[in-house]
Amino acid sequence: MKRLGRFLGLLLIVVALAVTTGTLVPRPLWPAAAAMPAATRHILVLNNPIHTDIAIPFDDAVRRRFHFLVDAGIPADRPEVRYIVFGWGGRAFYLETPTWSELKAVPVMKALTLDASVMHVDVAGDILEPRPDIAGFDITEDRFAALLDFIDASFQRGPEGPILVPDAAYSRFDGFYEANGHFNALIGCNTWTATALRTAGLRTGWWNPLPVSLGLSMRLYN
Hints:
This is TIGR02117 family protein. Pfam families: DUF2459. By secondary structure, this protein is an alpha+beta fold. The protein has one domain. It is built from eight helices and ten strands. The strands form three sheets. Strands 6-2-3-4-5-9 form a six-stranded antiparallel beta sheet.
């Protein structure tokens, strides 16, 4: 028992050091040369205690890019829609845990070990800032295009395009799609968000497994 206790204590120290280092060491290490953008796009990072999403401002070009959402019944073409919200995560945890009261052991174990991934897509109207669970960032048009490419490439595709997960949604305004990549304790929803933000020209921590570490690194380096 003493050996087990020492092992667990050492493991906690290693994890704490990894999270701290991953937060405080920026990625990329050096900021890009500053340039005056011709135009900017304002994106949002939405967070809860364990998960982050990216909210993309909606316009005709974005509507055309993600036209398959409307084909699947997600009402992205409604005039009151201002943002499309994208998140990547573990298939079992995402689909089987719509609320905390429905938390089960098997999805948690898959999330900690290895699981397939899905994309969750939702729509939103006006989102007011500032709020503790929302962070906004201005990016250039070319970085916005790169971010859209990254998000689009996260969808797994079949012969007819992105693969909708049937009968899987939290409400009538959202849906799930099969995604590329596998989910585990090291590569999770928040590391996907961090990669997307770096694609958008922002700096994150080197490894951000938690929303709090991602949020802190974003405040430090952007």
